[in-house]
């Protein structure tokens, strides 16, 4: 599951924990929700995928099915507000459901739905229609908020930044003993630039013979990464761990979390690492500098300069005190600015402001 799916799931769970009635709509139940089946105020709805022969060629019309299902749920359960995460196709689903049921809606853009797919002419005009009709629009960083306004032709400052949040009771330093290891976690898409991470590590492998690189996740670039590790003759120093659910534990064992993304709207794994007091090395792109300040809560590098990346990584690998200093500051930043309580309240505020529009009493108070 990508970052948008995780955040949407965690948000729903946290809202339920403080008393809201939450309905999840999905075509395949996320593994993250398996432990919440018995909560009285969480309901799951499955989008059934028809098996008509026609759809073997063109694919089942998910947008039509999902919007009809939402309209049905709204009528049967008296839903107040619908929150869609990741604009493609969910903004369009939300738009259609609103037209059918009158439900008020919010969309959160998360990254590639805006700065990559959102710019595609095949999607852009339809997405503009849907997003411009939203009652509320949020993005996970200031960088992405401004990008969302530009890509979808929205008014300046019409998109509100609500950062992703980290549960610091789940992500915390679990052990004082750390391995001499660098961890990278991603979906191994080209934008994550994982082969570049291996190349950077290879530059320092001889100088730091006790260190290893742990790669967490799977994706299209996995075979490429394995080939690069072999060609650079460091395959015995690079561990491919695959998809894992024990991310907090893995982060707590690592000495460094490294991100080499070409673009990153927030950097969820970076924030999770900071919460576990793991020193962070990251490319200075997108929304990352809003979370991790160079020299204060991590080290950033110019993603166009391999020499800069190698230099910054060497600083961390050679200096345990620096790693500890940055790690402790990183957790402080997460607790202060990206805590669950703070961010959930910001979402509640935007829901309240939208619902306020339909209430005379509320309009007077507002």
- Order of SSEs: HEEHHEHEHHEHEEHEHEHEHEHEHHHH
Structural class: alpha/beta
Q: What's the rounded overall pLDDT mean?
A: 91
Share of residues in helices = 40-55%
Distance from first to last alpha carbon: 38 Å
Largest sheet: 6 strands, parallel
Short description:
This protein has 366 residues and is α/β, with parallel strands linked by helices. Helices cover 46% and strands 15% of the residues.
List the helices and strands and how they pair.
Layout: H1 3-17, E1 22-26, E2 42-46, H2 55-58, H3 62-77, E3 81-85, H4 87-101, E4 104-109, H5 112-115, H6 121-132, E5 136-139, H7 142-151, E6 160-161, E7 181-185, H8 194-204, E8 212-216, H9 222-231, E9 238-242, H10 247-253, E10 256-259, H11 268-275, E11 279-283, H12 288-291, E12 299-301, H13 306-317, H14 320-337, H15 340-356, H16 360-365
Parallel strand pairs: 1-2, 3-4, 4-5, 5-6, 7-8, 7-10, 8-9, 10-11, 11-12
Structural write-up:
- This protein has 366 residues and is an alpha/beta fold.
- The chain folds into two domains: 3-165 and 340-365, Glycogen Phosphorylase B (Rossmann fold); 181-337, Rossmann fold (3-Layer(aba) Sandwich).
- Helix content is 46%, strand content 15%.
- It has helices at residues 3-17, 55-58, 62-77, 87-101, 112-115, 121-132, 142-151, 194-204, 222-231, 247-253, 268-275, 288-291, 306-317, 320-337, 340-356, 360-365; strands spanning 22-26, 42-46, 81-85, 104-109, 136-139, 160-161, 181-185, 212-216, 238-242, 256-259, 279-283, 299-301.
- The strands form three sheets. The protein has a six-stranded parallel β-sheet, with helices on both faces. Strands 3-4-5-6 form a four-stranded parallel β-sheet, sandwiched between helices.
- Helix 11 (268-275) packs across helix 14.
